[in-house]
Please model this.
Amino acid sequence: MTADLTTWATWREIHQQPYIWADWGYDLDVLGLRAWIAKQDYDHVWFCGAGTSAYIGDILAAALPDTRSIPSTDLVSRPHYLMAGRKPLVVSFGRSGNSTESIGTLDVLDALAPTAPRLHITCNKDGALATRPSAGACKVITLPDATHDAGFAMTSSFSTMLLTALALFDQPCDVAGRMITLSDQLKTLLATFTPDPAPTRMVYVGTGPLAFAAREAALKVMELSAGQIPALWDSTLGFRHGPKSFVMPGTDITVFTSAESPARAYEVDLIAELRQQFPDARVTTVGPEGDVNIPQPFGAAWSAPLAIATAQLSGVRWSHDLGLNVDDPFSGAGTLSRVVSGVQLYPVAP
Model:
């Protein structure tokens, strides 16, 4: 870390992640929460959130059978279509727990499924997700205060909410030990990863859960650069089907690679193709034995926060070099804010 970068809360929040994970692995009541989930009456698990919080659900649903990612932005705008005939356990993610769509999701459930079980995973003990009463069974998991990021970009909030959900919905494991391993991996990554100079365009691709990790990575770059570095994401195989037209000289392409087969074989083929077709583009691999080596001992979803950390670091570095306020890249513009507000909610008819 340079002295200049440490002045930004976002940079410090990225670097606090391994310490948060290590402690949280011991503090999280995994057995008690799993027992509560097992007692609930539901036939689907829905992961809900907006923006980065929705991408948590996308990563989870790509990794966990019989689960579904339902962005709160979709649920609020099409409540009757999505709720008809369903009996879900609704898992809501929210850094502040106060975004308009988080509140709108609670309104939808109150109107259409008041007794549906709810699990809220939030970083703000004072937000609506933590404090609003529910007619049915509701469990609130409030993450450590440090995860309530002060910066615009979600960093430690994103990763800790994702890992919390994996601890509860993936196969049972030694969560504390697993979090220690991931913490140690991230400490090594943070000490060794050096962002390349800022590109004119950025692409992230991956397979399965890592495709949606690529989505979050692309968002971090666009947010932190205030849109000055356009960023695209796609799946490894999907990228050839038109989105590859985004690549031009000066584009950086990062491939989040897998350990599983046959996904890795397809990724290797795409990497070779991109390096041959676009000699003026930087192609970087992030994953097992990659240019940025990130082993995946617990699978791709558990390693997603490590891969995304490279985009967090790059985004801050590039934002800083562009002369932006890293902690509030849209300062003065009034177009985006840390907590989305100003969205008109409309009544939900029973």
User: Anything to note?
Assistant: The chain has a mean pLDDT of 95. The domain at 5-175 is CATH 3.40.50.10490 (Rossmann fold). The two ends are 54 Å apart (CA to CA).
